[in-house]
Design a protein that fits this description.
heterodimer; A: 111 residues; mainly beta; B: 118 residues; seven-stranded mixed β-sheet; four-stranded antiparallel β-sheet; 11 strands; globular
C-alpha cells in the first residue's frame, strides 16, 4: 500500500482539463512543500513535471500546473493532448524512513 | 548533458546479493544528494534510500533497512546500492535519481532490472 493515495485512473478528451489528486497526511504533504509530480510513459523512466507543489521545470508545458490544500496535492493538465497519456505519480518528503513517499500512480487516458 | 547510468542488475537467487552502480556525468556529483527508487513490474514507484552529498546522512525505507546499503564515491562520480538477503519482492527496475533542492527526484537514470528468482 502506497503512502500517498491517488485515483488509479483518470481520463479526458483532447482539449479538456483533468485534475489528479494525491492525498497524504500531516506528516508528509501537509508538513512541507516538497511535493512533486512525475510523468511516466510505458517502458520509460519517470520525468518530473512539477516540483515544490507548483513549479514547472524548464521545458514542461504551461498546461501542467500543481496546487496543494492541507494534506492533498493536485495536478491539473489543461488542453489535453494525446502525448499526455501516461502514468502520473506524486511524491512528497516524509522524513526519516519515509524520507521519500510516492503515490500509487494514476493512469491518464486521453479519449 | 546531465546523465545517470545504472548498471549491475541481473538475475539472482533468493538470499543472494547484488551491487548496483550509478555513474553520473554532466554535473558536479559531489554537490548533490542522491536516491535509489525502484519499480516492481507493473507496479508503482517506491523510494528505497537516500544519501546526502557528503555521505554523512543516510536513510532507508523500512522494506530494505538492514539488508541494503547505499554509498557513494565522489572521486568516481558513482553511487552504489549493495543488496543482501534478496527476496522475490525485491524484483524491480532500480532507478538512480538526483535531488535538486526542493525537487527530491529531479533527474532519473534509465534504470537497471533486478530479478530475484530461483
Amino acid at each position: 500500500q502506497s503512502a500517498l493515495t491517488q485515483p488509479p485512473s483518470a481520463s479526458g478528451s483532447p482539449g479538456q482539463s483533468v485534475t489528479i489528486s494525491c492525498t497524504g497526511t500531516s506528516s508528509d504533504i501537509g508538513a512541507n512543500n516538497y511535493v512533486s509530480w512525475y510523468q511516466q510513459h510505458p517502458g520509460k523512466a519517470p520525468k518530473v513535471m512539477i516540483y515544490e507543489v507548483s513549479k514547472r521545470p524548464s521545458g514542461v508545458p504551461e498546461r501542467f500546473s500543481g496546487s496543494k490544500s492541507g494534506n492533498t496535492a493536485s495536478l491539473t493538465v489543461s488542453g489535453l493532448q494525446a502525448e499526455d497519456e501516461a502514468d502520473y505519480y506524486c511524491s512528497s518528503y516524509g522524513g526519516g524512513n519515509n524520507w521519500g513517499v510516492f503515490g500509487g500512480g494514476t493512469k491518464l487516458t486521453v479519449l | 548533458e546531465v546523465r545517470l547510468l545504472e548498471s549491475g542488475g541481473g538475475l539472482v537467487q533468493p538470499g543472494g546479493s547484488l551491487r548496483l552502480s550509478c555513474t553520473a556525468s554532466g554535473f558536479n556529483f559531489r554537490n548533490f544528494d542522491m536516491n535509489w527508487v525502484r519499480q516492481a513490474p507493473g507496479k508503482g514507484l517506491e523510494w528505497v534510500s537516500v544519501i546526502s552529498n557528503t555521505g554523512a546522512i543516510i536513510h532507508y525505507s523500512d522494506s530494505v533497512e538492514g539488508r541494503f546499503t547505499i554509498s557513494r564515491d565522489n572521486s568516481k562520480d558513482t553511487l552504489y546500492l549493495q543488496m543482501h538477503s534478496l527476496r522475490a519482492e525485491d524484483t524491480a527496475v532500480y532507478y538512480c535519481t538526483k535531488r535538486e533542492g526542493s525537487s527530491l527526484f529531479d533527474m532519473w537514470g534509465q534504470g537497471t532490472m533486478v530479478t530475484v528468482s530461483s
